[in-house]
Design brief:
alpha/beta; 3-stranded mixed beta sheet; 9 strands; 6-stranded parallel beta sheet
Protein backbone atom coordinates (compact mmCIF):
# COMPACT_ATOMS: atom_id res chain seq x y z
CA UNK A 1 0.00 0.00 0.00
CA UNK A 2 1.19 3.49 -0.81
CA UNK A 3 1.61 5.93 2.05
CA UNK A 4 -0.34 9.03 1.08
CA UNK A 5 -1.48 12.22 2.74
CA UNK A 6 -4.48 14.45 2.16
CA UNK A 7 -5.07 17.89 3.65
CA UNK A 8 -8.24 19.96 3.35
CA UNK A 9 -11.44 17.96 3.83
CA UNK A 10 -14.04 20.37 2.48
CA UNK A 11 -16.75 19.83 -0.13
CA UNK A 12 -14.16 18.54 -2.61
CA UNK A 13 -11.38 17.26 -0.40
CA UNK A 14 -13.41 14.94 1.81
CA UNK A 15 -14.65 12.67 -1.01
CA UNK A 16 -11.29 12.89 -2.81
CA UNK A 17 -9.49 11.60 0.28
CA UNK A 18 -12.16 8.96 0.78
CA UNK A 19 -11.57 7.67 -2.74
CA UNK A 20 -7.85 7.30 -2.03
CA UNK A 21 -8.65 5.34 1.11
CA UNK A 22 -11.15 3.09 -0.67
CA UNK A 23 -8.52 2.35 -3.32
CA UNK A 24 -6.53 0.60 -0.59
CA UNK A 25 -3.95 3.24 0.28
CA UNK A 26 -2.76 4.26 3.71
CA UNK A 27 -3.79 7.92 3.97
CA UNK A 28 -2.85 10.43 6.65
CA UNK A 29 -5.56 13.07 7.09
CA UNK A 30 -5.57 16.65 8.30
CA UNK A 31 -8.02 19.51 8.04
CA UNK A 32 -8.72 22.73 9.95
CA UNK A 33 -11.81 21.15 11.51
CA UNK A 34 -10.19 18.22 13.30
CA UNK A 35 -13.49 16.39 13.78
CA UNK A 36 -13.83 15.93 10.01
CA UNK A 37 -10.44 14.24 9.78
CA UNK A 38 -11.24 12.10 12.82
CA UNK A 39 -14.59 11.09 11.31
CA UNK A 40 -13.08 10.06 7.96
CA UNK A 41 -10.18 8.27 9.63
CA UNK A 42 -12.59 6.26 11.77
CA UNK A 43 -14.97 5.47 8.89
CA UNK A 44 -12.37 4.47 6.30
CA UNK A 45 -9.37 3.35 8.41
CA UNK A 46 -7.29 6.43 7.74
CA UNK A 47 -4.65 8.01 9.97
CA UNK A 48 -5.72 11.16 11.79
CA UNK A 49 -3.01 13.83 12.06
CA UNK A 50 -3.12 16.83 14.38
CA UNK A 51 -0.85 18.99 12.18
CA UNK A 52 0.22 19.25 8.52
CA UNK A 53 3.74 18.41 9.68
CA UNK A 54 2.55 14.98 10.83
CA UNK A 55 1.13 14.33 7.37
CA UNK A 56 4.49 15.27 5.84
CA UNK A 57 6.30 12.88 8.17
CA UNK A 58 3.95 10.00 7.30
CA UNK A 59 3.45 10.22 3.54
CA UNK A 60 5.46 9.86 0.35
CA UNK A 61 2.78 11.48 -1.83
CA UNK A 62 0.81 14.34 -0.32
CA UNK A 63 -2.31 15.95 -1.78
CA UNK A 64 -4.12 19.04 -0.61
CA UNK A 65 -7.26 20.92 -1.61
CA UNK A 66 -7.72 24.20 0.26
CA UNK A 67 -9.52 27.46 -0.41
CA UNK A 68 -6.96 30.01 -1.56
CA UNK A 69 -3.32 30.92 -2.05
CA UNK A 70 -2.74 32.05 1.53
CA UNK A 71 -4.17 28.80 2.93
CA UNK A 72 -2.08 26.72 0.56
CA UNK A 73 1.14 28.50 1.42
CA UNK A 74 0.45 28.26 5.16
CA UNK A 75 -0.35 24.54 5.03
CA UNK A 76 2.75 23.77 2.93
CA UNK A 77 5.43 26.24 4.05
CA UNK A 78 4.09 27.71 7.29
CA UNK A 79 5.14 26.87 10.82
CA UNK A 80 4.28 23.21 11.42
CA UNK A 81 3.48 22.87 7.72
CA UNK A 82 3.94 19.90 5.42
CA UNK A 83 7.45 20.95 4.39
CA UNK A 84 8.69 20.90 8.00
CA UNK A 85 8.03 17.16 8.15
CA UNK A 86 8.28 15.92 4.58
CA UNK A 87 11.22 13.78 3.49
CA UNK A 88 13.48 14.56 0.53
CA UNK A 89 12.09 12.74 -2.49
CA UNK A 90 8.47 13.10 -1.43
CA UNK A 91 5.87 14.70 -3.70
CA UNK A 92 3.32 17.39 -2.85
CA UNK A 93 0.47 17.81 -5.36
CA UNK A 94 -1.71 20.85 -4.73
CA UNK A 95 -5.24 20.44 -6.09
CA UNK A 96 -6.22 23.91 -4.88
CA UNK A 97 -6.92 26.70 -7.36
CA UNK A 98 -4.36 29.35 -6.43
CA UNK A 99 -2.15 31.97 -8.06
CA UNK A 100 0.10 30.39 -10.73
CA UNK A 101 3.01 32.69 -9.90
CA UNK A 102 2.72 32.00 -6.16
CA UNK A 103 2.44 28.28 -6.86
CA UNK A 104 5.72 28.40 -8.80
CA UNK A 105 7.32 30.23 -5.88
CA UNK A 106 6.09 27.56 -3.43
CA UNK A 107 7.51 24.84 -5.68
CA UNK A 108 10.87 26.59 -5.90
CA UNK A 109 11.05 26.84 -2.11
CA UNK A 110 10.23 23.13 -1.70
CA UNK A 111 12.88 22.14 -4.22
CA UNK A 112 15.54 23.51 -1.86
CA UNK A 113 14.63 20.65 0.51
CA UNK A 114 14.47 18.02 -2.23
CA UNK A 115 10.66 17.94 -2.25
CA UNK A 116 8.88 17.76 -5.62
CA UNK A 117 5.80 19.87 -6.26
CA UNK A 118 2.94 19.69 -8.76
CA UNK A 119 0.13 22.15 -9.29
CA UNK A 120 -2.85 19.85 -9.89
CA UNK A 121 -6.11 21.82 -9.82
CA UNK A 122 -9.23 19.88 -10.67
CA UNK A 123 -12.72 20.45 -12.01
CA UNK A 124 -15.93 18.49 -11.64
CA UNK A 125 -17.38 20.02 -8.48
CA UNK A 126 -18.86 17.94 -5.67
CA UNK A 127 -20.40 15.21 -7.90
CA UNK A 128 -17.06 14.64 -9.64
CA UNK A 129 -15.22 14.44 -6.34
CA UNK A 130 -17.74 11.98 -4.94
CA UNK A 131 -17.81 9.81 -8.04
CA UNK A 132 -14.06 9.84 -8.69
CA UNK A 133 -14.63 11.46 -12.08
CA UNK A 134 -12.71 14.71 -11.65
CA UNK A 135 -10.57 16.25 -14.38
CA UNK A 136 -7.05 17.20 -13.27
CA UNK A 137 -4.83 19.74 -15.00
CA UNK A 138 -1.24 19.28 -13.85
CA UNK A 139 1.90 21.38 -14.08
CA UNK A 140 5.42 20.48 -12.98
CA UNK A 141 8.18 18.02 -13.79
CA UNK A 142 6.83 15.38 -16.17
CA UNK A 143 8.67 12.51 -14.47
CA UNK A 144 7.13 13.49 -11.13
CA UNK A 145 3.74 13.70 -12.85
CA UNK A 146 4.16 10.20 -14.31
CA UNK A 147 4.77 8.59 -10.94
CA UNK A 148 1.97 10.57 -9.26
CA UNK A 149 -0.61 9.96 -12.00
CA UNK A 150 -1.82 6.55 -10.68
CA UNK A 151 -3.05 8.24 -7.50
CA UNK A 152 -4.74 11.06 -9.43
CA UNK A 153 -6.53 8.37 -11.43
CA UNK A 154 -8.07 7.09 -8.20
CA UNK A 155 -9.77 10.49 -7.86
CA UNK A 156 -10.41 11.43 -11.48
CA UNK A 157 -11.10 10.09 -14.95
CA UNK A 158 -9.22 12.68 -17.05
CA UNK A 159 -5.66 13.61 -16.15
CA UNK A 160 -3.97 16.23 -18.34
CA UNK A 161 -0.27 17.04 -18.17
CA UNK A 162 -0.14 20.71 -19.13
CA UNK A 163 3.58 21.46 -18.96
CA UNK A 164 6.00 23.07 -16.49
CA UNK A 165 5.13 24.52 -13.10
CA UNK A 166 2.03 26.72 -13.08
CA UNK A 167 0.62 25.44 -16.38
CA UNK A 168 -2.05 23.31 -14.69
CA UNK A 169 -3.30 26.39 -12.88
CA UNK A 170 -3.26 28.49 -16.05
CA UNK A 171 -5.42 25.85 -17.74
CA UNK A 172 -7.80 25.67 -14.77
CA UNK A 173 -8.22 29.44 -14.61
CA UNK A 174 -8.94 29.58 -18.34
CA UNK A 175 -11.62 26.92 -17.94
CA UNK A 176 -13.21 28.79 -15.03
CA UNK A 177 -13.01 32.07 -16.93
CA UNK A 178 -15.14 30.60 -19.68
CA UNK A 179 -17.54 28.93 -17.21
CA UNK A 180 -18.11 32.10 -15.21
CA UNK A 181 -18.79 34.17 -18.31
CA UNK A 182 -21.18 31.54 -19.69
CA UNK A 183 -23.02 31.59 -16.36
CA UNK A 184 -23.28 35.37 -16.51
CA UNK A 185 -24.75 35.19 -20.03
CA UNK A 186 -27.19 32.46 -18.90
CA UNK A 187 -28.34 34.63 -16.00
CA UNK A 188 -29.00 37.62 -18.24
CA UNK A 189 -30.67 35.60 -20.98
CA UNK A 190 -33.04 33.64 -18.75
CA UNK A 191 -34.06 36.68 -16.70
CA UNK A 192 -34.74 38.57 -19.94
CA UNK A 193 -36.71 35.78 -21.63
CA UNK A 194 -38.69 34.97 -18.48
CA UNK A 195 -39.72 38.58 -17.95
CA UNK A 196 -40.68 38.80 -21.63
CA UNK A 197 -43.02 35.84 -21.10
CA UNK A 198 -41.10 32.89 -22.56
CA UNK A 199 -41.46 29.82 -20.32
CA UNK A 200 -38.02 28.90 -18.87
CA UNK A 201 -38.43 25.23 -19.84
CA UNK A 202 -39.11 26.22 -23.44
CA UNK A 203 -36.16 28.59 -23.51
CA UNK A 204 -33.84 25.89 -22.16
CA UNK A 205 -35.04 23.42 -24.79
CA UNK A 206 -34.31 25.97 -27.50
CA UNK A 207 -30.82 26.60 -26.12
CA UNK A 208 -30.11 22.86 -25.97
CA UNK A 209 -30.93 22.56 -29.67
CA UNK A 210 -29.00 25.58 -30.90
CA UNK A 211 -25.45 26.85 -31.21
CA UNK A 212 -25.84 28.17 -27.64
CA UNK A 213 -25.94 24.62 -26.27
CA UNK A 214 -23.79 24.40 -23.12
CA UNK A 215 -22.96 21.61 -20.73
CA UNK A 216 -22.80 24.11 -17.87
CA UNK A 217 -26.29 25.45 -18.63
CA UNK A 218 -27.76 21.98 -19.01
CA UNK A 219 -26.32 20.97 -15.63
CA UNK A 220 -27.06 24.15 -13.66
CA UNK A 221 -30.44 25.19 -15.12
CA UNK A 222 -32.52 22.47 -13.38
CA UNK A 223 -31.16 23.64 -10.02
CA UNK A 224 -32.22 27.21 -10.81
CA UNK A 225 -35.70 26.17 -11.96
CA UNK A 226 -36.37 24.26 -8.73
CA UNK A 227 -34.74 27.05 -6.68
CA UNK A 228 -32.10 24.72 -5.27
CA UNK A 229 -28.93 26.70 -4.58
CA UNK A 230 -27.25 24.12 -2.34
CA UNK A 231 -23.51 24.26 -2.88
CA UNK A 232 -21.60 22.26 -5.44
CA UNK A 233 -19.20 25.14 -6.16
CA UNK A 234 -19.76 28.30 -4.18
CA UNK A 235 -20.15 31.86 -5.40
CA UNK A 236 -17.32 33.05 -3.15
CA UNK A 237 -14.81 30.55 -4.53
CA UNK A 238 -15.60 31.37 -8.15
CA UNK A 239 -15.29 35.05 -7.25
CA UNK A 240 -11.84 34.25 -5.85
CA UNK A 241 -10.90 32.38 -9.03
CA UNK A 242 -12.01 35.28 -11.22
CA UNK A 243 -9.71 37.50 -9.18
CA UNK A 244 -6.83 35.11 -9.93
CA UNK A 245 -7.69 35.25 -13.63
CA UNK A 246 -7.55 39.04 -13.61
CA UNK A 247 -4.26 39.02 -11.67
CA UNK A 248 -2.70 36.57 -14.14
CA UNK A 249 -3.99 38.61 -17.05
CA UNK A 250 -2.37 41.74 -15.61
CA UNK A 251 0.94 39.88 -15.24
CA UNK A 252 0.72 38.74 -18.88
CA UNK A 253 -0.60 42.09 -20.19
CA UNK A 254 -3.86 40.54 -21.46
CA UNK A 255 -7.10 42.59 -21.21
CA UNK A 256 -10.16 40.71 -19.91
CA UNK A 257 -13.01 43.27 -20.10
CA UNK A 258 -15.90 40.77 -20.01
CA UNK A 259 -14.39 38.85 -17.10
CA UNK A 260 -13.93 42.06 -15.12
CA UNK A 261 -17.67 42.77 -15.41
CA UNK A 262 -18.52 39.17 -14.52
CA UNK A 263 -16.52 39.53 -11.31
CA UNK A 264 -18.77 42.42 -10.32
CA UNK A 265 -21.84 40.19 -10.74
CA UNK A 266 -20.27 37.71 -8.35
CA UNK A 267 -19.39 40.52 -5.93
CA UNK A 268 -23.00 41.72 -6.03
CA UNK A 269 -24.15 38.19 -5.24
CA UNK A 270 -21.75 37.96 -2.28
CA UNK A 271 -22.90 41.37 -1.03
CA UNK A 272 -26.49 40.11 -1.30
CA UNK A 273 -25.74 37.15 0.96
CA UNK A 274 -25.23 34.41 -1.65
CA UNK A 275 -21.49 33.88 -1.13
CA UNK A 276 -21.77 30.42 0.42
CA UNK A 277 -24.50 29.26 -1.98
CA UNK A 278 -23.80 27.57 -5.29
CA UNK A 279 -22.57 29.89 -8.01
CA UNK A 280 -25.85 29.48 -9.91
CA UNK A 281 -27.41 31.55 -7.11
CA UNK A 282 -25.91 34.62 -8.83
CA UNK A 283 -29.02 34.74 -11.01
CA UNK A 284 -30.92 36.06 -8.00
CA UNK A 285 -29.10 39.39 -8.28
CA UNK A 286 -30.62 40.08 -11.70
CA UNK A 287 -33.97 38.56 -10.70
CA UNK A 288 -34.34 41.01 -7.81
CA UNK A 289 -33.31 43.96 -9.95
CA UNK A 290 -35.77 42.91 -12.68
CA UNK A 291 -38.70 41.83 -10.49
CA UNK A 292 -38.91 38.30 -11.93
CA UNK A 293 -38.03 34.77 -10.80
CA UNK A 294 -36.76 32.06 -13.13
CA UNK A 295 -38.57 28.89 -12.00
CA UNK A 296 -40.71 26.07 -13.28
CA UNK A 297 -43.81 27.50 -14.94
Amino acid sequence: MAKLGFLGLGIMGYPMARNLLRAGNEVALWTNTASKAQELAAAEKGHFCATPREVGEFADYIFLCVGDTAMSEKVILGEGGIASGAKPGSVIADASTISPSDSRRIGAELSKSGISFLDAPCTGSKPGAEGGTLTFMVGGDEKVFDKTKPFLEQMGKKIYYCGPAGMGLNAKLTQNLILSNILGAFNEGLVLSTKAGVAPELMLDILANSAAKSGLIEYKAPFVLRRDFSTNFSTKWMHKDIGLMLDSAAELDVPLPLTAVTRQLFQMAISSGFGDDDMCSTIQVLEKMSGVEVKKS
